[in-house]
Design a protein that fits this description.
Layout: H1 3-11, H2 19-29, H3 35-48, H4 56-62, H5 68-87
Helix pairs in contact: 2-3, 3-5, 4-5
Length: 89
């Protein structure tokens, strides 16, 4: 390793979290007090489709969220997950 290789590594961006860490962070946001945060988390979890299967219990709790948009987003995320799982069979 040369001298300049050391400097190149310092400037490299930090590694991005793995899919499990990303999903765990999104699931944690489902309990946020701000409905906009919960809504965004639902939408992002739904985009993960089958990879987000472990988020189903947390999404099921939001089906009865006081915010109607969050309820809908949770239902849509559940639907995307279930469709992805069903197509794998």
């Amino acid at each position: 390793m040369g001298l300049f290789d050391i400097f190149k590594k310092k400037d490299a961006p930090p590694p991005s979290p793995g899919p499990d860490a990303e999903l765990a962070a999104l699931v944690a946001k489902l309990k946020d007090s701000d409905p906009k945060v919960r809504l965004d988390a639902c939408q992002r979890i739904g985009a993960l489709k089958g990879r987000a299967a472990s988020a189903r219990p947390a999404l099921e709790e939001l089906i009865v969220d006081p915010d109607g948009d969050v309820c809908l987003a949770a239902a849509e995320a559940m639907s995307a997950i279930l469709r992805a799982i069903d197509t794998k069979r």
